[in-house]
Design brief:
Blueprint: E1 9-13, H1 18-29, E2 33-38, H2 41-51, E3 56-60, H3 66-80, E4 85-88, H4 103-131, E5 134-139, H5 143-146, H6 152-172, E6 177-184, H7 190-193, H8 197-205, H9 215-226, E7 237-240
Parallel strand pairs: 1-2, 1-4, 2-3, 4-5, 5-6, 6-7
Helix pairs in contact: 1-9, 3-4, 4-6
Length: 246
């Protein structure tokens, strides 16, 4: 175990699986206590139990509902008396071409990604500014840089997260709170492995490193952004993509 986050407390939304769980695990390994916040409350509790009941708790949290995001912050404060790091990772996809995408599909993705990230950023910032320290890590996507077919909703939301991150970073810098974003590329997960082989092959052809990334490779960058190793960085965007669309 390294001590990069010794005695600090983090909240990870969408933390019950995939990239979110990998981030939560890396934070625990670095000495932090973690609130696993997820729409699926049972999965959040199970993930926290796996991480260790002395270092993690699981809470149900719909990031679109501000009171539930505040509830996750309150849970951290009630359990450990402090809160230092917010990771806004929760997300969904509702892919469809513009011709077939419904308004509901557009609104759902914008709400979870963009409003959810805004809720997490503003509510975390309200607490962190009082203690004059803290880090907020927002998970965007390469789709927010280049735009992907069938993802007008997702690409718009993920691009919006970048603009929001930079604006929030400017607002919070003089309060000692840093706000940065990560843009993952193709990451091996249950969702991406379910892709049609043709789509997978096409994406692989775009990656100079010729492989998909692992959730742990996003988690290590999230650890860097949460820790004092990135103490002079705010408003930045890290592309973790194997060189895709550089």
């Amino acid at each position: 175990m390294n001590a990069l986050l010794d005695s600090q407390v983090a909240i990870v939304t969408g933390g019950a699986q995939g990239i979110g769980l990998a981030i939560a695990r890396s934070y625990v390994d670095a000495g932090a206590k973690v609130v696993v916040a997820d729409l699926d409350g049972e999965a959040a509790v199970a993930a926290a139990t796996e991480l260790g009941e002395d270092v993690a708790i699981g809470v149900a949290c719909d990031v679109v509902v501000a009171d539930q995001v505040q509830g996750a912050i309150d849970a951290a404060l009630a359990r450990w008396g402090r809160f230092d790091i917010m990771v806004n990772n929760a997300g969904i996809t509702r892919d469809a071409t513009m011709r077939t995408m419904t308004e509901e599909q557009f609104d759902q993705v914008i709400a979870v990604h963009l409003k959810g990230c805004w809720n997490g950023t503003r509510l975390a910032a309200a607490h962190l500014r009082e203690q004059k320290s803290g880090a907020i890590v927002n998970i965007s996507s390469l789709s927010g840089k280049v735009g992907m077919v069938g993802q007008t909703n997702y690409s718009a939301a993920k691009a919006g997260i970048i603009g929001m991150t930079k604006a929030a970073a400017k607002e919070m810098a003089h309060h000692g709170v840093r706000v940065n974003a990560i843009q993952p590329g193709l990451i091996a997960s249950a969702m991406t492995r379910a892709m049609p082989q043709k789509a997978w092959d096409q994406k692989m052809a775009e990656i100079p490193m010729q492989r998909a990334g692992e959730p742990e490779e996003i988690a290590s960058v999230a650890l860097f952004y949460a820790s004092a190793m990135s103490s002079y960085m705010t408003g930045t965007v890290a592309e973790v993509t194997g060189g895709r669309f550089m």
